[in-house]
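Students often ask why we bother predicting the structure of a whole assembly rather than each chain alone. The short answer is interfaces. A chain on its own may look different once its partners are present, and contacts between molecules only exist in the joint model. In this exercise we take two input lines together and write out one structure for the complete complex. Read the inputs first and try to guess which parts will touch.
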Amino acid sequence: MDRTAWVLSETELRAWLQSLIAGERTVVAPVAEDGMVVYRPLAAAERAVLEPRGKARWSPKEFLFPRTEALYSYSFKGDAVTITDPPPPERPQVLFGVRSCDAAGLARLDEVFLSGRTDPLYAARRESTTVVTAGCAAADPECFCTAVGGSPLGEEAADLQLVPLDDGWLLRVLTLRGDELIGEAAAGWSAAPAGSGERVAALEREVAAQIGRNPVPQEWARVLEGGFASASWDRLAAHCLGCSICAYVCPSCSCFDMNHDANAWCGEQCRSWDACTFVPFTLHASGHNPRATRGERYRQRVLHKFAFTADGEAHFRCVGCGRCVALCPAGLDISQIVTAAAAAIQEEGADAAR
Amino acid sequence: MSDLATSAVRHAGAAAVPDGWQPQIVALVCNWCTYAGADMAGTTRLEYPATVRMVRFPCTGRMSPLMILRAFEQGADGVLVSGCHPGDCHYVQGNLVARRRFTIFRSLMDFLGIDLRRLHFAWVSAAEGHKWARVVKDVSAAVSAAGPLPRPLATDGWEGPVLPAAEGEGPREIPAADSVALRDHLRRTAVELLESGRVGVVIGHRRGSLPGRLVPVMAATAAECRELEWGEGAVNNLVTYAATALKGAEKAALVVKACELHALTGLIREGQIARERLLLVGLQCPGVRPEGGLAAKCLGCSGAPHPACDLLLTPEGVREGGSEAPAAANDDARDRQIAHLESLPADERWLYWQRQFARCLRCYACRAVCPLCYCSTCVADKHRPQWVPTTIDARGNGIWNVIRAMHLAGRCTGCDECARVCPADIRLDLINRKLALEVERQFGAAGLDPGEKAALVDFRMEDPEEFIL
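Now the answer. The structure tokens for the assembled complex follow.
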């Protein structure tokens, strides 16, 4: 039997999902809540929102990099101090029906938390996570994955991939871990017919054609970094209001702040999400702030997504999900700003050369 | 409502009470009256339940709702606030301002589904040792009856209440040809204002990158003015940008919808902006559609430009405005939704808000877009002490959302920007509107007059205080 791809009806897909929920893993999937779609641990398969298009309000990164987590907790009793490590993840988890851009975001988080000095909390969760992506059959107006090297049917960080077809879903195995997740469930499924690969490629071209934004060339990373001192940043960021929607809905933003949540008897050392667009993000205890202006703060965000890469990384940290574009209160569009910044910097360079 | 929902609600209402449980009550007391009163109770050997832990403050006027919220967050089952009788304040009026604040805070907590048996206020003077003992007994009994503070509950699968639809006619539609005429008037006016030197910058809207969405622009050149747009996508309240624009210009023209004018009144009243530095351009408004549908705030609005604007733009042409007519408040289509929430059992309201606050990402977009949120350092960013926990969970989220609402009580002018931008779809508009209604009910109409003080920094000797022990 071919153990690489099947075609599943909606009923078969939901039945499999239900069996996963009944199994040993926590299944996280998009669900509807108060009129919006968010990723939640799933209690019943029918609650999952599995659509050929559209995405959850924010990425599923919080299931690997929680909004807030205790790194350790402590308590005092007399002179004795007890320090306790956080418990390891209780159950392995499946991220089910995440978009390709969301999965690509996990790969970006891996680069931060698993390369060099490994973050043990992130690593433990990542190790016990299986990712089942659901590709897109149509692009939303804010989408631009193809402009930053991604694809609506991208395979990065996916263990299994669901491809929406007119008559159900194509389920493709991409890793051993994905194959393990399927286990014996495939017994009654029909193998994908020959030519499925071409159908997927055709769908990929079709969706990519709907994305109107121009590709961001890889060499702009250097251009942007070279334009660190450009005067254009203040102008480009003039309308930024300094919230952190962009960073918190972003699949790849990984910055955090450390804080104590404590009383006189016990407490926790927590790390919580933080964002470069906030004024206190870089505020020193002395009162000095090295990123004192809106332009400097927004520049950090753009450069961290499109420049500042570690050696050997040949991709942007932006995965092109477009959530920040859709949700920005001031309507800032990072893909347009990158284009405008690169143009302004090249212009300034040309002026200087003259 | 599903069975799941009913059971979740029942669970919230009937938390199991452990054997021998005694309530833990935090009492925030003023130094001059109640603390001395409690001392008097001690020296006269009066007995009262040992359920209260006292924290001494200089004055009830110093007691921010933050302190009450922190007490609950740290596990208190109830909070008692007590200070001098009206007229006895060591600082003349601290307790009178505090009384208004408590009145509003109490109704907010009720709206959010907090059992009011947990929250008490009392006037106890230095001579009233007996009253202190009685108050502690009464409060202790009330908190005991309410039981242990309910912990956050999973609301997964709960369908939640179905709020009645916000209904209203909204502004009259602007035909396509008129829209073009209106836009052209706007562009021409903006260019003239800029080129004549009357203003240094025009704050308006331009086309954004998403279909139908306009974005703010501070246009400083004629070319930028020629790209100004107007229409249903003009969602942003541009008053938020006024202070920024005025840093680089002596005078700014501001494109303003009637609903946003109140925000400007608020800023003028609070000394944040000088009216003469702004030139207000009011346009016939088709209503805004942030997510396809007409915004709730538009349902009761005619869309006519407000006569207080300096220039009034309609498809027919440009007129001088500048009348003194006060801004009239619209009927609010959401009042029915608020009434519906108030008709639900408190436990259900608690679940309703708890689920929304649980989604809060603490992105502070609500603060960033609010024209009235102008503090140079927000209380949420202060960390000595850290009154608002930075943890993005039940600990910090509830406190943030409550204190944000409290800081805007009596000041919020209902532009709904916070609710529009909230990525977690928290109905901040309902909370703000509820508090506006409450301020109006308790202390009279929220003044739209720039000369008037905001309700919560003002007081009257005869302010209502039925709830105070």
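Check your guess against this: Residues 5-63+88-210 of chain A form one domain.
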